[in-house]
Amino acid sequence: MSAQRFSKKREAIYRVVCSTTSHPSAKWVYDQIRQEYPDISLATVYRNLALFKESGQLVSVAVVDGEERFDTTVSPHGHFVCTLCGEVLDLDVLRLDSFEREVERQIGAEVESHSVIFYGRCADCRCMEASD
Amino acid sequence: MSAQRFSKKREAIYRVVCSTTSHPSAKWVYDQIRQEYPDISLATVYRNLALFKESGQLVSVAVVDGEERFDTTVSPHGHFVCTLCGEVLDLDVLRLDSFEREVERQIGAEVESHSVIFYGRCADCRCMEASD
DNA sequence: GATTTTTTTGAAAAAGTTTTCAAAAACCCC
DNA sequence: GGGGTTTTTGAAAACTTTTTCAAAAAAATC
Question: Distance from CA of residue B94 to its chain's centroid?
């Protein structure tokens, strides 16, 4: 139905990235895949993640500590990024659809999507700080 | 007043990045600076941009086509990124401060900042498409 | 203003990501 | 299922960014 998904390795990459809610990085996916395909190239992982992103099966959420992080929940929602441990969390709701129309009027553009990210200290990291 | 700003080159980098509203990339700043200091290293530009970011004189707005883009308007506002030409535009208002408190309740985190980016086709790129 | 300490720099290495290109795998048609 | 076409892959190069480290520049001390 959803167009192409040919090779075994491509299917495995998609399976792995869907297997977690931790918003994994390419390196994390690579390390998981290597248990199944020890000869896979890191370039193949990057290439397929980019492909999934282009086809809408995947979304790039944020770059945390230099690493791009992905999300297979493609319905629009916001994210929280912990600036201490790098954890990425999903947020309920937070759709700025009405703002999209406002932005279109403001600058004459055609808005297709938007991204909302909150930064701070996650609950776990706050606990650790408190016990110092 | 605002702490350190020692070397000539550092001052020049800050002057250049402040001289435009185009949300420049490190490479763009480097190319400008080289007209004044032909022997400057690209690493010095990256290093100082990172320093300005840390000290709050500068903000990292988005990564467009693999390049980080900067803004010296540090008061909170949203941005629009054209997915065709890569232009980055400032948006009026759009502060989600009340949402910050909601997010804190939702996940128990301490939110310090947030980022809002709209993606689509800018006015210029829409015109060009229409004339195809 | 010379000496010592601290900061900043250039060059090169390293890290994350993308691209190139020839070989391998998957697909298509008969 | 064999032969030709298209897609996908691994390896290596290239690109953006960060880090390392010794040398140069700036600041502080005398």
Answer: 17
